[in-house]
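Sample pair:
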Amino acid sequence: MKLSVFVNNMLMMWFLVDNDEICAALKDIFENVRAVAEPSGATSLAGLKKYVKKHGIEGENLACVLSGANLNFHTLRFCF
């Protein structure tokens, strides 16, 4: 497959998430696995949650990449 076709297919699957959805994802990560992700890392979970809701996916195993714990107390206060 040509790289341009691959990239074009990937670009058709993006979701815009807002701060509230990112904060909800941060909270979900902490409450479910007691891990701390940075907001940019939690964005992948926020997008995955939006994708699942939009497509009505149930009972499937899905994955997303979470990154880092580059987090400060200001961000924690903002989200929690």
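Residues 39-55 form the longest helix (17 residues).
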